[in-house]
Structures are given as structure tokens and as C-alpha cells.
């Protein structure tokens, strides 16, 4: 079977590989010399469907009331919950970990963490930094956890709660988690492999009239509370009507190269003396057989089955990954598509016609048509800018 037409189907993701997209990129941009230099410098992402190298699907663990952080007893064991971070798990992880560890430490400095995704890994490290001995118990390790299938950008209030369920206490807790995480991320820059870095986001406002992005779920919008720490960027008007966008919102964007970031977190945990045991818990009562007196439960969407918690609603999200282009690191949105060109792959995500897209959908099967549609939107964008990809 010839390599160029081979299709690979993998557990949790399908991929289509075609090397014909590697030919030189002919460019003939339309930009006139008097156009703002910021707009002329938008990196060229080679959005071609034959450059899709895999498709991944993930379920955001959404709870209307926000993440669960309460403390419960299971027999003689104490369990601190730390799950249900919706579309904000990576962003809020350090702040959420801090709150959970503060609740566990008074019980014991011998802590079991259940789960090894964004929340479990950061929780385990924060506990170690506070002097605890930590063992992670988990069914799967990165990259085989849902966190490894995230877009990887700073989105602390994405699908984090429903507006009508947000209490003043939750809003204040969310703010403290977001501020603490943001400060942690500033100290994780400049590391080998660039696990965390700033890129430039281009919000391209299409010239074609479109209905405002409706939100039938009524997700909470909390970003205003941390406006002072987030760069706001600037809005650039584009008068050249040949270009498909009339305005560009340009701003710095904090991103996570999830492959190297997970690797960094795993190494940190092991270097600090952490232990990992692979196991699947089928019922909370199984915790009573483990040696630690206190556990922090970081099972994400898995908590729905394990803790019989039907307050977790799955919000499906799919990414079509394009072959990385280290020369074109940036992020952008155009139409209903969000792109993050990371070092470990280019995320192309169809956001749907409204904010209800993916809500209460448990289907983790890759949708090739959705992947192609999203990449084609970005392909059309560059073609209308005058590029031949
Ligand atoms: C398409 C998409 C894009 C996203 N983009 C972003 C983004 O840009 N920024 C952001 O901040 N967030 C983003 N998110 C959200 C983010 O991915 C989640 O909030 C995050 O992954 C939740 O992490 P977690 O550690 O709680 O869960 P998981 O990553 O699912 O980890 C759960 C862990 O628990 C283990 N586990 C589960 N059940 C059991 C069991 N019964 N026994 C033993 N172990 C168990 C699993 O093996 C795993 O190790 C995105 C989500 C999606 C779907």
C-alpha cells in the first residue's frame, strides 16, 4: 500500500497522512505596503487537509456549579475532590491544586493523588512542594489522558460554570485560582522545550456578516475579574476590502506545549521522589485498601462514573492536528475556527455555530468531516489573503 494514501486509525483518534503537502509554500500575499505591519506579519499556516496528521477528541468535565473541591470521608479515609474543570483544566490547575492540597495536608503528609492529567500532576507537585510524600494512582498516564488532547492555551473561564449557578464564593475562588495559576505560569517560561510560552493571537473578524455567537447553555463569564493581569492587545482596522477580515484583534496569548509540558511535570514529580501506581478504581470503597490516610481525587470526567456524579456534563471537543510549523508559531480565530500553532502540533478546532456545540455529547469518535471542514476554513482564509499553500 503506498505511504501517501495510507490511513491510520488509532484509539481515541484517527489520522490521515499525506506527504504531498510538504512541497514549498508559494506565497503571493495581497498586503499593500501601507497596511499595518502587525497585520502583514500574520504567520502562514499551511492549512491543507493532507497535512492533518491525527484527529483527537476529548470530553470537558463540565459542572454547572464549577469544579468540585469539597472533602468527604470514605470509611476511615479522607478524600479531597479536585475535578470538574470544564474547558479550563490546564489554566486553573495550579490554583486548584493549591486549594486541594491545603485541605489534605492537615490530615496527613502521606498523600495519594488519583489521576495523572493536568489536575493530578499539578496537585501532586504542589503537595510535594509542601513537604508531602505522594503516590499517584491512575488508570492512564500522559499522553493517554484527556488533558493531552487540549488546545493548550490560557482559557481560565472557558466552560467553567453556568452563570445562573455561580455564587459570589465561587467567583472569588475562581479568581484566586486563576491569579495563582497565572503567576505560576510566569515562572515556567524559558525552560528547555518551551513547555509554556507566549505567542501572538490574531482574532480575525470576518467581513461576512454573521449572527452573534449565541450561548444557549449560559456559561459563566468571569474574565473581567482578572482583566488587570491579562494583556488586552490592540484592535487594528483593515480597510483593504480584498482581505477577508475587517479588523484584527492582536494580543499576546499564553500557551502550553502540552507534550513537553506534561513531560516536564512528570519529571518534576519523579525527581521530587513521587511514585506512580497504575490501577483502575471501580468504586470509592477500594481506597480503603490503599495505605494513604488522605486522597486527592483528580479523575476529571472519570469522576462521573467512579463517584456516580451525574452533575458532570461531558462537553465534546475535537482537534484536527496539522504537522507542526516551528516557523509559524501563533494562534488565531476566524469564523467558527480556533487555531493554535504550537511546537508539538497545530491545533485546528471547529467551535460550532453556537456555544452549545458538544454539550452533553459523550461521543469520542473522531469526525473526519468536521476536521476537514475546520482546516478548509483556514485554507480559504489564506487563499483569500493571496497565499497558495
Ligand atoms: C478540545 C478541548 C480543548 C481544550 N483546551 C483547553 C485549553 O486550551 N486550556 C485549558 O485550560 N483547558 C482546555 N481544555 C480542558 C482540559 O482539557 C480539561 O479541563 C482537563 O483535561 C481536565 O484535566 P483532569 O486532570 O481533570 O482530567 P484528565 O486529563 O481526564 O485526567 C484524569 C486522570 O484520572 C485518571 N482516572 C480517571 N478515572 C479513573 C479511575 N476510575 N481509576 C483510576 N484513574 C482514573 C485518568 O486515567 C487520568 O489520569 C480543553 C478540553 C477540550 C475537550
From TrEMBL:
<dbReference type="InterPro" id="IPR006311">
    <property type="entry name" value="TAT_signal"/>
</dbReference>
<dbReference type="InterPro" id="IPR029752">
    <property type="entry name" value="D-isomer_DH_CS1"/>
</dbReference>
<keyword id="KW-0285">Flavoprotein</keyword>
<keyword id="KW-0274">FAD</keyword>
<dbReference type="InterPro" id="IPR023209">
    <property type="entry name" value="DAO"/>
</dbReference>
<dbReference type="InterPro" id="IPR006181">
    <property type="entry name" value="D-amino_acid_oxidase_CS"/>
</dbReference>
<comment type="similarity">
    <text>Belongs to the DAMOX/DASOX family.</text>
</comment>
<feature type="domain" description="FAD dependent oxidoreductase">
    <location>
        <begin position="111"/>
        <end position="373"/>
    </location>
</feature>
<dbReference type="InterPro" id="IPR006076">
    <property type="entry name" value="FAD-dep_OxRdtase"/>
</dbReference>
<protein>
    <recommendedName>
        <fullName>D-amino-acid oxidase</fullName>
        <ecNumber>1.4.3.3</ecNumber>
    </recommendedName>
</protein>
<dbReference type="Pfam" id="PF01266">
    <property type="entry name" value="DAO"/>
</dbReference>
<keyword id="KW-0560">Oxidoreductase</keyword>
Amino acid at each position: 500500500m503506498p505511504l501517501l494514501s495510507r490511513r491510520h486509525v488509532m484509539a481515541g483518534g484517527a489520522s490521515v497522512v499525506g506527504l504531498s503537502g510538504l512541497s514549498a509554500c508559494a506565497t503571493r500575499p495581497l498586503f499593500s505596503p501601507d497596511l499595518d505591519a502587525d497585520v502583514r506579519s500574520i504567520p502562514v499556516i499551511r492549512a491543507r487537509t493532507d497535512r492533518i496528521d491525527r484527529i483527537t477528541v476529548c470530553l470537558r468535565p463540565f459542572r454547572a456549579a464549577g469544579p468540585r473541591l469539597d472533602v468527604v470521608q470514605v470509611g476511615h479515609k479522607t478524600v479531597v475532590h479536585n475535578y470538574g474543570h470544564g474547558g479550563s483544566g490546564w489554566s486553573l490547575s495550579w490554583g486548584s491544586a493549591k486549594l486541594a492540597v491545603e485541605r489534605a495536608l492537615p490530615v496527613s503528609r502521606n498523600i495519594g493523588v488519583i489521576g495523572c492529567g493536568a489536575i493530578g500532576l499539578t496537585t501532586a507537585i504542589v503537595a510535594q512542594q509542601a513537604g508531602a510524600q505522594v503516590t499517584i494512582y491512575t488508570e492512564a498516564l500522559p499522553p493517554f489522558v484527556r488533558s493531552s488532547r487540549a488546545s493548550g492555551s490560557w482559557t481560565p473561564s472557558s466552560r467553567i460554570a453556568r452563570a445562573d449557578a455561580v455564587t459570589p464564593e465561587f467567583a472569588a475562588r475562581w479568581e484566586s485560582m486563576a491569579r495563582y495559576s497565572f503567576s505560576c505560569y510566569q515562572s515556567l517560561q524559558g525552560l528547555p522545550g518551551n513547555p509554556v510560552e507566549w505567542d501572538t493571537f490574531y482574532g480575525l473578524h470576518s467581513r461576512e456578516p454573521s449572527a452573534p455567537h449565541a450561548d444557549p447553555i449560559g456559561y459563566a463569564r468571569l474574565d473581567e475579574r482578572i482583566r488587570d493581569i491579562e494583556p488586552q492587545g490592540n484592535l487594528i482596522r483593515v480597510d483593504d476590502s480584498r482581505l477577508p477580515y475587517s479588523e484584527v484583534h492582536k494580543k499576546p496569548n499564553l500557551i502550553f506545549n502540552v507534550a513537553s509540558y506534561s513531560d516536564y511535570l512528570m519529571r518534576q514529580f519523579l525527581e521530587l521522589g513521587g511514585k506512580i501506581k497504575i490501577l483502575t478504581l471501580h468504586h470509592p470503597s477500594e481506597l480503603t485498601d490503599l495505605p494513604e490516610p488522605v486522597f486527592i481525587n483528580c479523575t476529571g470526567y472519570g469522576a462521573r462514573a467512579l463517584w456516580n456524579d451525574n452533575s458532570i456534563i461531558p462537553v465534546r471537543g475535537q482537534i484536527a492536528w496539522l504537522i507542526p510549523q516551528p516557523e509559524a508559531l501563533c494562534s488565531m480565530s476566524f469564523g467558527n475556527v480556533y487555531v493554535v500553532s504550537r511546537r508539538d502540533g497545530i491545533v485546528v478546532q471547529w467551535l460550532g455555530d453556537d456555544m452549545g456545540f458538544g454539550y452533553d455529547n459523550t461521543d469520542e469518535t473522531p469526525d473526519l468531516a468536521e476536521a476537514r471542514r475546520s482546516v478548509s476554513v483556514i485554507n480559504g482564509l489564506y487563499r483569500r489573503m493571496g497565499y497558495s499553500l
